[in-house]
Amino acid sequence: MTRDSRPLAVFDLDGTLADSGHRERFLERRPRDWNAFFAAAPKDPPLSEGVELCLRFAEECDIVYLTGRPERCRKDTLAWLAAQGLPVGPVHMRRNDDRRPARTTKVEILRRLGRDREIRMLVDDDELVCDAAEKAGFPVVRAEWAAGTTEAMKEAQEREGRT
To answer: Is the dihedral of CA 118, 124, 128, 131 positive or negative?
Structure first.
């Protein structure tokens, strides 16, 4: 099997591979402090369950990362992935000015990826993203190993299109 014929395993970052809970405090105030929220991302501890699943699937799949983080966070995100020993793979990030809900942007990217390759699974912690991906016909693993998402984070993901 050639490298480009292997199926894809698509992994979310925050709440799936990275424990972003320590940053959510920046979203609980008004106005939300998005700069501080994303600046603290390099300090995210890894979520062992997500990391182990990613490494296991890398044996038979190419890994793709699909995050709601804005493009301006690319350098820090790539450094964090490398520091965790995670497989190298494309990282799909939100345009800096894209405020659509994560369930919309992520399913759009999944459809684009799925035109040329089999999507073996999407692993994500966002219930609305998981529901939308399943409805679109993609296999989903719900990342339930992280601490519960705060209401501020849910609102940011769904209404503000920020992560």
So the answer is: positive
Q: What is the pLDDT of residues 118-142, one digit of tens each?
A: 999 999 999 999 999 999 999 999 9
Report the C-alpha gap between 129 and 142 in whole angstroms: 10
Q: Torsion over CA of 122, 127, 129 and 130, rounded to 10 degrees?
A: 40
Residue 121, H or E segment: strand 119-124
Paired with 11 in beta bridges are: 65, 123
CA distances from 61 to 6, 15, 46, 53, 160 (A): 6, 21, 21, 12, 32
- In this prediction the pTM is 0.90
Token match 């490494």: residue?
55
Run of H or E residues at 89: none
- Name every residue whose Cβ is closer than 8 Å to that of residue 2 and which is 6 or more positions away in sequence: none
